[in-house]
Write a structure and sequence with these properties.
By secondary structure, the chain is mainly alpha-helical. The chain is about 70% helix and about 0% strand.
Length: about 150
């Protein structure tokens, strides 16, 4: 063998090694791309599961119109105790509707002791119709007016 043949053989061996290495690199790149794709799919599935769990907890807590609030919240940050705390705050913020017929001017809507006693006396006076009961009701009404009652 001449030097020229040895050099040519070495060049052929080097080219073959480069081809093998490039195919191995291509295979590894394909595997990395597949791995990244699977990783992205897994992250998407986990996010979907978290969103579904989030929606279920909100629905179970009884908060209405939560979809309007959702764009302002990050479901990934609201996990466990943070979510429960948020739902507790939202439940506390629910507007309490006054029953029909209650005071709307800041009064409690509950009858005072004077009003209850007066209502009882009025009911007794109407039921019996006796002059004594009517007089007792009238006297009680005057006393309440005299000492700061509303009637």
């Amino acid at each position: 063998m001449t030097d020229e043949t040895i050099v040519q053989t070495n060049v052929e061996v080097t080219e073959e090694q480069e081809i093998e290495q490039s195919t191995e690199i291509d295979v590894l790149r394909a595997q990395v791309a597949e791995y990244e794709e699977l990783k992205a799919q897994l992250a998407e599935q986990e996010a979907t599961q978290k969103a579904e769990l989030f929606a279920q907890k909100v629905e179970q807590s009884g908060v209405k119109d939560f979809d309007k609030l959702r764009p302002f919240l990050d479901a990934a940050k609201l996990e466990g105790d943070a979510l429960d705390e948020l739902l507790g705050v939202l439940q506390g913020m629910k507007s309490k509707q006054n029953p029909i017929g209650t005071a709307t001017n800041g009064g409690s809507g509950e009858k005072t002791a004077q009003q209850i006693v007066l209502a009882d006396a009025k009911a007794i006076a109407k039921r019996t119709g006796s002059i004594e009961d009517i007089a007792a009701f009238s006297g009680l009404k005057q006393k309440i007016r005299q000492f700061g009652g509303q009637r």
